[in-house]
Amino acid sequence: MFSFGATVLFSPLVFCKEPNDTEEIQVENQVETFPISVNYDLSVESMVAMGKYDGQNYNFTTKNFPTIRKGEVDLVLGLVHFNGVLTSEEALKELDKMGYRPAELRELLVFGAKYSDIWNQFPPVVSVVALGSVWLDPNARRNHYKVPYLLMGSGGRYMEFNCFDCRWHEGCRFLAVRESYKYDYDKTKSGWTLLEDTSFDGKQFVPDIVEFLKPNESYVRGDVMKQRAKELNAHLSQRHAEYLLEHQDLIPKEWQGKYYLIFPGTVWQDWYGGQRVAYLYWDGDQWNLSFFWLEIESWGGPAGRLVGLRK
């Protein structure tokens, strides 16, 4: 759902690139989650004031940004880093694949107020974009549609606008709201919390075994395994695992009983605060999905393997 407004001033604090049709898009999605409580009955003006920003565009008003949402709602926001240059439309498609809707202005304002020091994790500056609120500027000569973003860094925190029709810089983060987890094994029903996820387009793929241990290693810590998964392009999600579980004919027979297959792209936090990732194992008759603690120091061994996409 998008909310529309009216007028905007273009900010000099732009953190995006103009469209370039010749630039290849390579996206790897990373998500951090943040719980918030949003009172949609509050005015935009009061929510801006609560953020105590060092500067803000004066067009952030309730009149310019009406909403049909009502009351106070608890949400889990995803701060999504695509780690690639892409357009707003492309970002929206990626968010949809991940089961997110783009955050709206009020959700961005609450995020900015509650997590005012989040920029320390992303030096030197970070732009957090809310594509769910698109603002029509009738006075603009070009790029009439604008979206709000929060710019944070050592120089301060600023609420501003930027054009919808541009390519966003690879350093930008996109704020989003989880619509549905779209998992067969939805661990929220067990009281777990989703900490990180990567996207899956639902298309058929052929899995490939990826070794992540070095010649002199028998095991590694979970964080080392996960970092190597990213470097080896084998950072697949739980939804990749579930797809293979439904299409077990795609898994080579010679893997049966020989390997367990690790999918570190989706990270859950269990009831005790431990972080877990999905893996597939052969029980003698079929492949099954389970979860294991990421923090352990014994990932690998003779059987542990990552999974990549065969080209």
Give the SSE map:
Blueprint: E1 3-5, E2 16-17, E3 30-39, H1 44-51, E4 55-56, E5 72-81, E6 86-87, H2 88-97, E7 100-102, H3 105-114, E8 125-129, E9 133-136, E10 145-153, E11 156-163, E12 167-168, E13 173-178, E14 193-196, E15 207-210, E16 219-220, H4 222-231, H5 238-246, E17 260-269, E18 275-282, E19 287-293, E20 299-300, E21 304-309
Parallel strand pairs: 1-9, 4-11, 8-13, 17-21
Antiparallel strand pairs: 2-12, 3-5, 5-13, 6-12, 7-13, 8-10, 9-10, 10-11, 14-17, 15-21, 16-20, 17-18, 18-19
Helix pairs in contact: 1-3
Task: Assess the beta-strand content as a share of residues.
Answer: 35-45%
Poorly predicted runs: 1-27
| End-to-end CA span | 36 Å
Number of strands: 21
How many helices? The count is 5
Major sheet characteristics: 10 strands, mixed
- Class inferred from helices and paired strands: alpha+beta
Helix content: 10-25%
Counted up, domains total 2
The whole-number mean of residue pLDDT values reads 85
